[in-house]
Structure formats: structure tokens, C-alpha cells
Fold this sequence. Notes:
The chain is mostly helical. The chain has 6 helices and 2 strands, in the order αααβααβα. Helix content is about 65%, strand content about 0%. A two-stranded parallel ribbon has the order 1-2. The protein is flat.
Amino acid sequence: xxxDIDELSLQILRGLGAEIAALEQLLSTHxxxxxxxxxxxxxxxxxxxxxxIKRAIDRCNGGRHRLIDAFDQSLRIPTPGPxxxxxxxxxxxxxxxxxxxxxxxxxxxxxxxVPMPGQRQQECxxxxxxxxxxxxxxxxxxxxxxxxxxxxxALLPPxxxxxxxxxxxxxxxxxxxxxxxxxxT
Length: 185
């Protein structure tokens, strides 16, 4: 599966200086995350294995956010004018969501071809169709965002990934553990 972004949007992205390679890495990262999530749900996975996989998921997800940041920072977007439209997510965040949906569509489509009991195959086909509709909606949103950004009419939010649970000073469990370790008890 490729990036699954229409050619016109890719042209605008290239015109804005987008690091398309970052999107390709993002897709690869999502595939890796998907595989890790599948392994974590194995009925034969030990608790130790699941803990190890969870830590790998956290590292991979951290890399995912760094890729989104790098992609957004690669864009050369004109300064928005006074009548700029406000958008709720960055271009990188929108592309990230589209890549996730593409993986879900591919999985549902593949699953629909596997022998399953009852109506499961039809449910997978229905899910793939519904997800495809949602992805088409996001594709239109991306195109509108890109057009507005390229013409200086887009006010995009600042990209700020702030995961409190990853910060040892902000995560209350880790903070308590650190205090306990420092107190000698």
C-alpha cells in the first residue's frame, strides 16, 4: 500500500516543501504499531511479553509524533492574512489520520476474504465501505486545508504533543515512585 493521497494533494504538498519521506516513514511506523498491537493481543502472550510490547508501542508512538512534527515543520506555509480560516489540526495530523484509516480499510478488506462464521465477512465489507467514506471525507478536508494553506488563508494550530504520562515529572505514578526512591523507603 502506498500513501493513498491523491495526486493533486501531493502536488500541493510538494509545492509547500513537504517531506514526503516523513509521510512514508509515518506509514511504516503505523504498520509497525499495528503489528505490535496484534502481538499484544495474542492469547499466548505472557504478561512479561505484553509489558515489553507495550514499551515498544510507547517508543514507536513517540517516533510517530516526532515524524508528524518533522513533517509539519518541513512545510513552508505562507503567513496567514487577517481573514484566514481557522483549522483544528495540522496538515501532518490530518495526514496521520488518513494513513491510519487506509490501514484500517486494507485490514477490513483483507479480513472480508478470510473464511469467517456467520455474517462476519459482510460486516468487514460494510466496515471497509464505511471507513472508505470517512477517508474520502478526510481527503476532501486535506485538499481544502492545503488550498487554504498554499494561498495564505489557513491559520493552523501549533503542533504540540503533550503527553503527561510520558513525562516523569508530570506522571503522578512515576513522581510518587521517584519520591519513594529518594526517601529511602
